[in-house]
């Protein structure tokens, strides 16, 4: 019997005009010829563009050639590449950033880590009501016992602050589903991406504790693991964990902060998902395990600040049904490909726990031509096969 998953969390696009644009394709690799997933790809001087997929592949539309393209990913040295032709796929190789151990770079790693987090929290506090707007592409995939069973693509207009996402409006979406008798039905997985805050201005025992806030040093311990050196930029890699006496659900993971300005670069966290949801099981079904990881990336913005660029989350749920394991994995990736001024009169929906992505997507009529010509994040070879299979089954837009 299929189990229903309901989030109880406590804690993007307007019409996209392409015209006669040139499509660039390529792949980003590291020094060992391994793919660099989720690397940023854009025109030099532009704020955002696209990102690589899990296989390091990308698609980027530009109005004309030649262009100077910039490729970057945290932990690697950025590369600027002139591009004059779209006749052949690009292959870009990134070199890993130099790493300095804490004892080489600073005298008291734990004190430096705590002070940096406090500075970052103070900076977020000063700007926490500063509203920004952007256009984002969201992809959600679900696999049941190794087989893709749900696939969602969506464009949103998004409103956000340094605290996190506080409103969005669906523009285009497609949702495909393969019927299954067992496994998990995820009604609003994107709630995790929207509702777990980056910065918590008023920590409460009733919410999940996060490492950035006015009580950060009271609630968490911090340890400087290493420093990433990238030209003149240095990024502190800081591991965090809740203090034993905290007594509430809390994130654990790693912060990436600019060593000089305390600007936020990335948050990697293990999410205490068992504290954030209820599980409704059918007869004969029980929970074996569940885990969730989340990564939030930021880009430099306005005088040592940073703003949201992407949020990725992966959840794995293992059930036991009739003495057999039953595994469901769900992943969501929200990527900002454009930032915009405020949109007066637009109806941004509050991102509460009752916002149901799938319900909203089901209202959209499927237009395959739209998706073939406007995909922001390139589908991996596996995802392309899944999309073709769902189209052949007429699963998109048939509910």
Termini gap: 20 Å
Report the average pLDDT across residues.
86
- Tell me, what's the shape? globular
H/E element sequence: EEEEEEEEEHHEEEEHHEEEEEEEEHHH
Biggest β-sheet, characterized? 11 strands, antiparallel
Number of strands: 21
Radius of gyration: 21 Å
The number of distinct helices, counting runs of at least 4 residues, comes to 7
| Class by alpha and beta content | mainly beta
**How much helix, percentage-wise, in residues?**
10-25%
Number of domains: 1
Uncertain stretches:
6-19
The quaternary organization reads as single chain
What percent strand?
35-45%
Order of strands in the sheet with most strands: 9-14-15-16-17-19-20-21-10-11-12
Question: How would you summarize this macromolecular structure in one to three sentences?
Answer:
This protein has 399 residues and is mainly β. It has helices spanning 102-105, 109-127, 190-195, 216-219, 357-361, 368-374, 381-392, and strands at residues 3-7, 22-29, 40-43, 50-51, 57-62, 67-72, 79-83, 90-93, 98-100, 132-144, 147-161, 164-177, 184-186, 220-230, 233-242, 252-258, 264-270, 277-280, 285-301, 305-321, 324-340.
